[in-house]
Amino acid sequence: MRRHAHPRGGHGHACRPRRHHDRRLFWRVYLHGIVLILLAGATALTTAWLSNAFPSWQRIEDRIGAFVVRELGPLAGDPAALERRLATWHEILEMDLAVYDRAGNRLVALGADPPAALDPPPAEGASVRRRSLRGYDLDGDRYVVARVLVPFAPGRGALVVGAVLLVLALASGPLARAITRPLERLTATARAFGQGDLSARTGLARRDEVGDLARAFDDMAGRIEGLVRSEKELLANVSHELRTPMARIRVALELCEEPDTGADQMRRHLGGIGNDLAELERLVSDVLTAARLDAGNGAFPLRRELVDLAAVVEQAAQRFLRDHASHELAAPASTARDPSATVDGDPVLLRRVLDNLLDNAAKFSEPSAGPIELALGVDGDEVWVEVRDRGIGVADEDIARLFDPFFRTDRSRDRGTGGVGLGLHLCRRIAEAHGGRIAAQGRDGGGLRVRLSLPAAGVPTSQGAERG
């Protein structure tokens, strides 16, 4: 067993929900919709106003034509009087005016740019419209032409509507692009990730719903990448750990087949084979237990019963002294059992946690460093067991990852102590299955302190472990 970890396999990188006031994309879309509605309303009002304005202006033109004929008709045969009247209108209305006969001869002209004759001229008693020119028949032989400022040309309403639609299109483009650009980036990243590029990340730093989606994807991609990397490490480590004892077993069997092998040597070789088989069995058991605990979010069926944790501690201490005779162990005496140190749990799995912690302490500490300490206590509604050693310790930056699957510190790798990095991960999952927790802390002067905390019997837990 090694002090190990792996990128948090679903425990610690869960995305926190964003606060409601960070939903900026929602408000951008909402406000943009309001603007579009206002613009559409303005367009409708403008169109309606223009459509109502044209008939009104035409009625005004008809009245102006009747006025012109009434005022100028009697003067059509008197060019001098006609010119005086038109001069008055020109001065007041600032219009360019001209009078023509039916042959196109100009009789009177006023203004800097008198209008040209109309072709064809207005019919008798009628008026005509030629863009900015208005022609009015005076007496059948002569007509007057005026250049006027037209407030609304026939095609101007359509021009206004087209301009409003263009503004809508231009205003919608930037927002649509702002929404689709990060989504396109997300799509490209997801496609690259799905094609095997596990390092693909969006890298988006937006503070809206799209940013939340991008961060969730990046977190998920990081966890998946870590899991895939850990699976590869697991296969490599398991193959290595299986190869070593199997090679020793093969050598021992070959030695047993030698004709000069005595009974004592045979027993030693068989004892070595037994130890190697036990190591293989433990390795396979760790892998299978980890797989079962990881399946279904840790919903592992426990064989629960009331467990005297002091008795489990005593059994673990006896096994440790038997298997690690070179190490000293400072453990609580059996006479000091606390009757309140009772938990509702699986005694086999709890014993396994203590065995893993003690083996881990022995593996990473020298016998000369001092005794390994095993302590038991009750703190309110919790029962705790603590293992302390004076070993090589763990760097502060590695303690947070110590219980992650397949993690091994660099110093533990250098020691070549074996294991695939599942022991402490199993301890954490077993503790969680019992509604408890496990934590590690460095010790002053070197070494590690690991505490397992469990709810005392009768204390309700939030875990959904089933009784077996």
Polypeptide structure, described:
This protein is of the alpha+beta class. The chain has three domains: 24-202, no CATH class; 209-295, Helix Hairpins (Orthogonal Bundle), CATH 1.10.287; 300-455, Histidine kinase-like ATPase, C-terminal domain (Heat Shock Protein 90). It is built from ten helices and twelve strands. The chain has a five-stranded antiparallel sheet with strand order 2-1-5-4-3. Strand 9 and strand 10 (382-388) form a beta hairpin. Helix 3 (156-194) runs parallel beside helix 4 (209-256), helix 4 (209-256) runs antiparallel to helix 5 and helix 7 packs antiparallel against helix 10. The longest helix is centred in the N-terminal third of the chain and has 49 residues, at 24-72. The radius of gyration is 48 Å and the shape is rod-shaped.
List keywords for this structure.
14% strand, 468 residues, five-stranded antiparallel sheet, disordered N terminus, Helix Hairpins, alpha+beta, five-stranded mixed sheet, Heat Shock Protein 90, 10 helices, 50% helix, rod-shaped
